[in-house]
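ingest -> validate -> predict -> emit
validate: passed (alphabet ok, no gaps, 184 aa)
predict: started
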Amino acid sequence: MSDDQNLIKEVDEEVRQDDYKRIWNRYKKYIFISITILLTLVISINVYKFNKEKKIEKQSELFFQATLYIELEDYQNAKKILKEINFSQTTGYSDLSFLYLIDLVNKKKISLDLNDLKVKKNSLFYGLIKLQKFNNEIDLNIENIDLESNEEVVEDDAVLIEEEIDVDPAIDVGIKQKEDKEEY
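emit:
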């Protein structure tokens, strides 16, 4: 029986190997395609992460260069770099650059239309940035009102001066009349 069992085992083994060969021949294309897709996907993800890290590093370097320019009071170069960072919209540094630009505008270090800048609606600072933009618009409107009211005050002063000039001749006439009465 042992020879029979060995023969059966060998036949079973050969049948299994033949089954494996058939399966391999039938599915080897799919296996290679699956492995290729998996490797391509892994490589793509790693390349994407690498590029994203490079962008973040570049944004970081630019941002700290802009803060250095602010410390050195070179506001125009800082403005240029901060605007470049803001327009890229790739990292959180774009939101921070927006806040720095608002701060410089509020401190009257630079002039800038904040509506030209970009902000993501899903940003952590979206509400704060909107409030800062609104605050800046209010400040600009107050300045415009102050300028208009100063012009009105200047015009009112001019009218008062003209009225005083009109009054002065009457006073001069009254003084002359008193002088004439005293002579008689």
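The first helix runs from residue 2 to 71.
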